[in-house]
Automatic annotation (TrEMBL):
It comes from the Bacteria. Residues 34-285 form the AB hydrolase-1 domain. Keywords: Hydrolase. This is Alpha/beta hydrolase. Transmembrane segments: none annotated. Signal peptide: none annotated. InterPro entries: AB_hydrolase_1, AB_hydrolase_fold, AB_hydrolase_sf, Epox_hydrolase-like. It holds the Pfam family Abhydrolase_1. One of its GO terms (molecular function) is hydrolase activity. PANTHER family: HYDROLASE, PUTATIVE (AFU_ORTHOLOGUE AFUA_2G14860)-RELATED, MONOACYLGLYCEROL LIPASE.
């Protein structure tokens, strides 16, 4: 049977591979060259990369995955501390997946939740990551510590999703398509940037049994155990040395409420970045601008002739 995203990724092949702790990670693979991992955000799937992956596949072997709890990846059981959905646990899936594909080291681009997972890859698996690009986030701890009224109004879903189960789950499951429209359509560009096939895929996946609970666990972990991990690193004075490119949408919330570049420079030793002329959903709103900006950065580590 043809998968719903097949038309969005022509020439790519689908896979399901083991991550960490028995989790199965679904994704697509295409292109040729040095390995590049793409990680999506909320409330989406690897389909966010459908305009970007084919462009990057000319230079890289592109691996676009569904995070655990999202898309067609499996949803591990929850725990009192939500550790199964900590960014540390989510990040541990990807050295396993990339290793199974034959890649011991790789570059990564993460958007939104996927960028938070990429942050943990930088912190927990520094030998695995050659270069990283983080899209439209500041560090989780910095965003919670700096939350003000403007941020809370714009990122209302952060505070909705962390409410005790089953309140947010019940409301999302009542109408997953409406939840998607409300979360994505209230951003600066509305729903106009999204391919109807991608929107249909996001809706299909959010309507799967257990999907609403899994995404709530992701956010509950971010408001708890993830903050503990970041505070421990701050107290220890740990910084990552992997080259990092930070990009955010000029019409988005992150750049208005925070200073992403300054925040990431507190955590990394080699950090550059800037705003792009778009809103939050950079891979779908400004795919060509994104590729133009990331290619020179990613190619710096490519072998001659790659």
């Amino acid at each position: 049977m043809t998968h719903p995203t097949e038309a969005l990724f022509p020439g790519f092949r689908r896979f399901v591979l083991p991550g960490a702790d028995g989790v199965a990670i679904a994704g697509v693979l295409g292109g040729a060259g040095p390995p590049l991992l793409l990680l999506h955000g909320h409330p989406q799937t690897h389909a966010i990369w459908h305009r970007v992956a084919p462009l990057l596949a000319a230079d890289f072997t592109v691996v676009a995955c569904d995070l655990r709890g999202y898309g067609d990846s499996s949803r591990p059981a929850d725990a009192a501390d939500h550790a199964g959905y900590s960014k540390r646990s989510m990040a541990a899936d990807f050295p396993a997946v990339m290793g199974a594909l034959g890649f011991g080291r790789f570059a990564v681009i993460g958007h939104d939740r996927g960028a938070r997972v990429a942050h943990r890859l930088l912190a927990d698996h520094p030998d695995a990551v050659t270069r990283a690009v983080l899209l439209d986030i500041a560090p989780t701890l910095a965003m919670y510590e700096g939350a003000d009224e403007a941020f809370a109004r714009a990122y209302w879903h952060w505070f909705f999703l962390i409410q005790p189960a089953p309140l947010p789950e019940r409301l999302i499951e009542a109408d997953p398509a409406a939840y998607l429209r409300d979360v994505m359509g209230r951003r600066s560009a509305g729903l106009a940037p999204f391919d109807p096939r991608a929107l249909a895929e996001y809706t299909r996946c959010l309507a799967r049994p257990g999907a609403a609970h899994a995404i709530c666990e992701d956010y509950r972990a971010a408001a708890g155990i993830d903050l503990e991990h970041e505070r421990a690193e701050r107290a220890a004075g740990r910084r990552f040395a992997t080259p990092l490119l930070v990009l955010w949408g000029a019409q988005g919330v992150v750049g208005r409420c925070f200073d992403p570049l300054a925040q990431w420079r507190r955590l990394g030793t080699e950090v550059e970045g800037e705003a792009l002329d778009c809103g939050h959903y950079i891979p779908e709103e400004a795919p060509h601008a994104l590729v133009r900006r990331v290619l020179p950065f990613l190619r710096l580590d490519a072998p001659p002739g790659a």
